[in-house]
Design goal:
This protein is about 40% helix and about 15% strand. β3 and β4 form a beta hairpin. Strands 1-3-4-2 form a four-stranded mixed sheet, covered by helices on one side. Strands 7-8-9 form a three-stranded antiparallel sheet, with helices on one face. The chain has a two-stranded antiparallel sheet with strand order 5-6. About 5% of the residues have low confidence. It folds into two domains: about 220 residues, no CATH class; about 90 residues, no CATH class. By secondary structure, it is of the alpha+beta class.
């Protein structure tokens, strides 16, 4: 059984504490689905398809919204049986062989119906991941994987729109922070040329999206990409010079997928790129700004690199 997280009342964590895990989730999604599979989700669920007015019949409305999300997540042979009960978490789903899956929603959603779609989106994504056989070890990382996939496949903007704060109370669904939801949503928007900002009803959700978008744009401006700014290019040139002067040294050590590098001698700790000396010369590796799969190219000036995982073509100045 899986959960959507606390329904309300818990302190809202801000910033990017789970960013590495969210990036790893995007990589894992592309690895499991392929670029062609991910691109089948080129349209996000429409606000009208998951709208829920107070005057709507509760159970008929829940089934309508659930069907819309099943279609969004490409699960045509799955049927969601939704009920309500008192519980600590916002929602939960029992993962079985299917085709019927039982979802329980917190009783508070009987009156707060506008966020039913958000809770269902997370739980139905659990079903998708269960069928794909895609999971991360540990509850926390697996829930972050679920939030990330929900958002990247076009249903997670609902979770960010469910984030609301005022002087006396707050509500947030899911395990990503609001800014992390905004970040993943912006990464999707870049790939599919969407403008999710027009869908928000929550001012706090929209603000978190703009902050996450700024972080996502920075991913597209890291050296050795030609879009990198002057300061990044200056640091890169310094690190490259060190690597050329110290072939095989610690400053040329390859980086991990999280984007950290070793080699305190060159001062390049924390850079997204890393150098390594091979028999045919110096190479630089860096994460693809779309899927975070690491790309390795020779250090020889202007080159075009094509990510073998998501097929993004990148202009580089190595």
């Amino acid at each position: 059984m899986t959960d959507t997280g606390p329904a309300n009342g818990s302190p809202v964590v801000r910033g990017y504490p789970h960013l590495d895990t969210a990036r790893a989730a995007i990589t894992a999604l592309y690895q499991r689905m392929s670029d062609d599979g991910v691109r089948r989700y080129d349209t996000s669920v429409a606000p009208a398809d998951v709208a829920f007015a107070d005057g709507d019949d509760l159970h008929l409305g829940v089934q309508r919204v659930a069907r819309a999300l099943v279609q969004q997540l490409r699960l045509p042979d799955a049927r969601m049986i939704v009920s309500f009960r008192e519980m600590e978490h916002a929602a939960s789903v029992e993962l079985t062989a299917g085709p019927e899956y039982f979802i329980e929603l917190n009783d508070r959603f009987r009156k707060h119906r506008r966020d039913i779609g958000a809770a269902l989106a997370h739980e139905i994504t659990h079903v998708l991941l269960h069928r794909l056989g895609l999971s991360f070890p540990g509850t926390r990382d697996n829930e972050i994987l679920t939030d990330t996939v929900t958002t990247y496949l076009g249903a997670g903007w609902l979770l960010l729109d469910a984030f609301r704060e005022d002087r006396d109370s707050s509500q947030k669904l899911g395990y990503l922070t609001p800014e992390e939801f905004g970040y993943v949503l912006a990464k999707r928007a870049i790939v599919f040329n969407e403008d999710p900002g027009i869908w928000f009803t929550s001012p706090q959700g929209y603000t978190a999206y703009t902050k996450g978008k700024a972080q996502a744009v920075r991913d597209e401006q890291q050296p050795p990409l030609t879009t990198a700014g002057w300061s990044g290019r200056h640091r890169y040139a310094k690190d490259r010079r060190y690597a050329l002067d110290h072939p095989g040294g610690s400053g040329a050590a390859s980086a991990s997928g999280s984007g950290s590098t070793s080699g305190s001698g060159s001062g390049n700790a924390g850079r997204p790129y890393a150098f390594e000396t091979l028999t045919d010369g110096l190479r630089v590796s860096f994460p693809c700004p779309t899927c975070y799969q690491r790309i390795r190219v020779p250090v020889r000036g202007r080159v075009r690199a094509r990510c073998q995982l998501c097929h993004t073509v990148l202009d580089c100045d190595t």
